[in-house]
Amino acid sequence: MMNWRIAVCSALVAGCTAATSGDLTVLSMNVAGLPAIIQSNEVPGDKTTNSLLIGTYFAKYGYDIINVQEDFNYHASIYKTDTHVYRTATSGGALIGSGLNTLANFDWINFARVKWDDCSNASGSDCLTPKGFTFMRIQIADGVYIDSYNLHTDAGTEDADETARNSNLQQVADYIDTWSVGNAVIVFGDTNSRYTRTADDITVFRTQNGMTDPWVELVRSGVEPTVESLCSNPSTTNNCETVDKLFYRGNAIVDLTADAFNYESSKFLQSDGNILSDHNPIGVNFTWSLSSKLRQSVYTGGPHGDWFSDLPTLSAYSTLSKPTKLTFSGGSRLDSISITLKDGTALKHGGTGGTASSLTLGTSEYWTSAKICQGQKDSQTRIFYISATTSAGNVVSAGTSTSDCITVTAPTGWQIAGFLGQDGDEIDQLALIFAPK
Questions:
Q1: Are 157 and 303 contained in the same domain?
Q2: Looking at residue 11, what is its pLDDT?
Q3: Residue 7 lies in a domain
Q4: Confidence check: pLDDT of 348 > 80
Q5: How would you class 129 by CB atoms within 10 Å of its CB: exposed for 0-12, middle for 13-18, buried for 19 or more?
Q6: Mind listing the pLDDT tens digit for each residue in 143-178?
Q7: Among 270, 290, 310, which residue terminates a domain?
């Protein structure tokens, strides 16, 4: 889990200047890690040697986020030569694990592995291993988070395969609608799909989640193909289509733009020019910049309860309706939090328990800083306490303070105007949203 004490630049470090823009490089690669005795993947050479070389290339090129699929029995070899600081632990070899892993230059929170609801053995043995997708919330800079998904769907082209694959893709799209509401998102991995396989409905990420395929955007000028165009391996052109894909979107806090797409095949070859995998790796370069309208703090607490976000509500305002009242309820822990805007909109999260404490803000008074404390309850990290201090020096608080606290301060010229996090009967996880005064 992220060291959230270090992660807040502006709130905790005097004179620290947080980045407001930057670059992000990502790669997706099916690493052909099934045991050689089961599947050669038609790749020459020894799989252990090839996997060591794959890890060497991961370290050499230093992509910021790498999603791998079929990372089964040669996982240790890839990690032996790779040097990325943050890497997921294997979920097991073939027949045991999903083969999905992430290597990154950034830490993350809320990591989850999710198994497919449906699978098919019509064209192979997809049901013999617990394939699915992973989810993580990656912090790429101070107050800049992207929800990252890695997936490997059902293979094959029989009717049952396409039915299962359609279900797989829909499962991810629905998960995004539940757990990534309001957030910047990147989905990338082995979809086993093409736009010409219409029964799969790979367009669900565009139509349901508002996401963009950078291959379609940059290589095909926004036009999705209707005629199949297969890639050779290694591919010498970007004009062909593979089943390895990426979809992305920004949000009200961070603008995310894809400025380059490439099949990275030529970077992942053996010394004799042979391929290392039966899939062309895909690479995308992004630029990002922070919004002038909304920002956010680091998250505190743990990944429990249901996701909530005030970003969709706040981003709908052309001019923010000023917060006029804060209400917190708590006892042993923090039960609920609420901000009431001038137009009467109430941004409330949590349960119904606890003792309520309220503070009505003056006409020119703003919520400027907060002390937030976390602690353990039933072996889960939860929010125990919050104290708000306004520009006028007024204070309102609820819950019970612990020794594990941070102070979050809105940047100069900004105010605290909303919340992000997870809740149930209490507040489990919390981040604060900043808006200009």
A1: no
A2: 41
A3: no
A4: yes
A5: buried
A6: 999 999 999 999 999 999 999 999 999 999 999 999
A7: 290
Q: CA angle, 285 as apex, 279 and 286 as ends, to 5°?
A: 135
The rounded Cα 112 to chain-centroid distance in angstroms is 11
The answer on 196 and 93 residing in a single domain is: yes
State the average pLDDT over residues 239-255.
98
Q: What is the DSSP string of 282-334?
A: EEEEEEEEE-SS-EE---EE-S-SEEEESHHHHHT-SS---EEEEEEEESSSE
- Per DSSP, the residues of 349-376 read EE-S-SEEEEEEPPTT--EEEEEEEEEE
Taking only the tens place, the pLDDT of each residue in 200-221 is 999 999 999 999 999 999 999 9
pLDDT value of residue 77: 98
| Residue 40: band (very low, low, confident or very high) from pLDDT cuts 50, 70, 90 | confident
- Contact call for residues 71 and 78 (beta carbons, < 8 A): yes
Task: Judge if the upstream peptide bond of residue 303 is cis by omega within 30 degrees of 0.
Answer: no
Is 161 found in the same domain as 266? yes
The pLDDT, as a whole number, for residue 151 is 98
116: Cβ contacts below 8 Å, ≥ 6 apart = 131, 132, 133, 153, 154, 164, 167, 168, 171
Indicate the pairing of strand 86-87 with strand 21-30.
unpaired
Specify the number of domains making up the chain: 2
Residues 161 and 309 in one domain: no
- Alpha-carbon distance of 59 to 81, in angstroms, equals 7
Same domain, 93 and 160: yes
Paired tokens of 106: 């950034």
26 within domain boundaries: yes
Give the pLDDT of residue 112: 98
Radius of gyration of the chain, Cα coordinates, nearest whole angstrom: 23
Residues of the domain holding 231: 17-290
Of 379, 386, 421, 417, the residue nearest 402 (C-alpha): 386
What is the C-alpha to C-alpha distance for residues 399 and 356, in angstroms, rounded to an integer? 10
Same structural domain, 184 and 66: yes
- In a domain? residue 412: yes
